[in-house]
Write a structure and sequence with these properties.
The protein is an alpha/beta fold. Helices cover 41% and strands 16% of the residues. The chain has a seven-stranded mixed β-sheet with strand order 3-2-1-4-5-10-11, with helices on both faces. The chain has a four-stranded parallel β-sheet with strand order 7-8-6-9, with helices on both faces. The structure holds 6-O-phosphono-beta-D-fructofuranose (F6P). The site of 6-O-phosphono-beta-D-fructofuranose (F6P) has 11 residues, from loops.
């Protein structure tokens, strides 16, 4: 049995834990097994950069963040474009797969990476995927590995801000990762006790935010904490076409939405505002126990799919069980926050403003 394995896209905390699950289970299932690890995601598959992974490579990595294989972003949009030397990337990936006489390729990836995985299935390769991303925005699975570890770090950031915000009577904006989907911001905002949560799915009104801050101030809470997703968007901007919005973002004089909002809130309320961006710390460090368990389960179930020849699938968590879902059904589909969901309603009843 000859298996290829790669990690693609932004890293997250339990990539190694997942590979360990796959590797250990496969070595227990097969006497005659070779695993090839492709370096830096699909780049390794395209350019034939790989090394053999032994049983021992999967030991001692359960709690180590990052990825022992390295990763990179290989945009799906450009996957059919030739590289700078005229190389057909899709053909090159198929060539590497065939040259190594692989029986299956195991891909650990998020949205874009799974689109490429699905394309490889359509091109005739045997592929099994594991859902990775701190954003938890993949369709077809209740949870992705990495999400809870990142939420933990974002929550700690909000926790740390709380005391300093209260001491200085300031408004603090904590910017949390997630360009398209606000699940991380919603969870970290709730867990960290944010007063205002702004996510891409619920466009905000500046007035509503400022009113909430003033209302808190007048009631004696001299500070406010706003959890803002990277992709949070004002109501006015949400009315723009994709093209107009892109143009506006290119010309924006602020590094991100948080800084623009900070300026606007200060101008409107006169209260000092500070911005904290935990950034890539959210993807760093050791995975939390939840992710270690989920990653291990995903890894082992992926190995079982390999053993059963159940190719073309992604392992997924649905109602507490790890199941398989066809890649063709989920590739390219985003899971977003439903503004009318129970969790958003609960947050609102608690007094959290979403700026809407
Ligand atoms: O997809 C995961 C993610 O961490 C997003 O939450 C974030 O917007 C993006 O990746 C950052 O990407 P990069 O690491 O390429 O800057």
């Amino acid at each position: 049995m000859r298996i290829g394995m790669l990690t693609s896209g932004g890293d997250c905390q339990s990539l190694n834990a997942t590979m360990r699950g796959v590797g250990k289970a496969l070595f227990n299932l097969y006497d005659n097994l070779e695993i090839f690890g492709f370096e830096d995601g699909y780049q390794g598959l395209i350019y034939s950069e790989y090394h053999k992974l032994e049983r021992s490579d999967f030991s001692g990595i359960l709690n180590i963040g990052g990825t022992i294989l390295g990763t990179s972003r290989t945009p799906f949009k450009q996957i059919r474009d030739k590289d700078e030397n005229g190389l057909d990337k899709v053909e090159a990936m198929k060539h590497t797969y065939r040259q190594l006489r692989l029986d299956c390729l195991v891909v650990l990836g998020g949205n874009g990476s799974l689109k490429t995985a699905n394309l490889l299935v359509q091109e005739g390769l045997n592929v099994i995927a594991c859902p990775k991303t701190i954003d938890n925005d993949l369709w077809g699975t209740d949870m992705t590995f990495g999400f809870h570890s990142a939420v933990n770090i974002a929550t700690e950031a909000i926790d740390c801000i709380h005391t300093t915000a209260a001491s200085h009577k300031r408004v603090f904006i904590v910017e949390i990762m997630g360009h398209k989907v606000g699940l991380m911001t919603l969870y970290a905002g709730l867990a960290g006790g944010a007063d205002i949560i702004l996510i891409p799915e619920i466009p905000y009104h500046l007035d509503v935010i400022c009113n909430k801050i003033s209302e808190r101030y007048n009631r004696g809470s001299k500070f406010s904490i706003i959890a803002v997703a990277e992709g949070a968007i004002s109501y006015e901007d949400s009315l723009l076409s994709k093209k107009e919005y892109k143009k506006k973002m290119t010309n924006r004089n602020y590094p991100s939405v948080s800084y623009e909002l900070a300026d606007q809130v200060f101008k409107k309320t006169g209260i000092e505002v500070r911005v904290t961006v935990p950034g890539h710390t959210q993807r760093g460090g050791a995975p939390v126990p939840y992710d270690r368990v989920l990653a291990t389960r995903f890894g082992v179930e992926a190995a079982k799919l390999v053993k059963n020849g159940d190719y073309g699938n992604m392992v997924a968590l649905v109602n507490g069980n790890v199941i398989k879902v066809p890649l063709k059904e989920i590739a390219g589909k985003l899971k977003t926050v439903d503004p009318k969901s129970q969790i958003v309603n609960e947050a609102k009843l608690l007094g959290i403003s979403f700026g809407d």
